[in-house]
Amino acid sequence: MAASHAFRGLQAFTFTELFVQLHEITAILTSLVVQVILLIFVAILDPKLIGLALMGAILFSLFTLGQRVQNEAAYIRIDHKLDQLYLTSPLAPESYFFGMSVAVLLAYLPPIAVLVAVTAYVTGFSLLTALILLAGGAGLWLFSCSIGYIVSTFFRDMRAIWSYASIFYNVFGVLPPVFYPIGELPAFLRPVALVVPPSAAAGLAQWSVHRSVLSGGEVLLASVALGVEALLTFYIAILWARRSVREP
Amino acid sequence: MDGDPLRASTVRKVYERRGESPVEALQGVSLVVRPAERIALLGRNGAGKTTFLRIASTLLAPTSGSVTVFCHDVASEPELVRPLIAVVPQEGKPFFHLTPREQIYTYLRTRGFGRDEAKRRTEEALLQMELSEFADRLNITLSGGQRQRTMVATVIATEAPLLFLDEPTIGLDPFARRRVWESLRRLTRVGSTILLTTHYLDEAEALSDRLYIIERGRVLVDGTAASLKAEVGGSVRISIEGGERARPIFASFGNALLDGGILHVITTPERVPEALALAARERLATTIGPVTLEEAFLRVVGRSIDAE
Question: Cβ contact (<8 Å) for A16 and B109?
Answer without folding.
Answer: yes
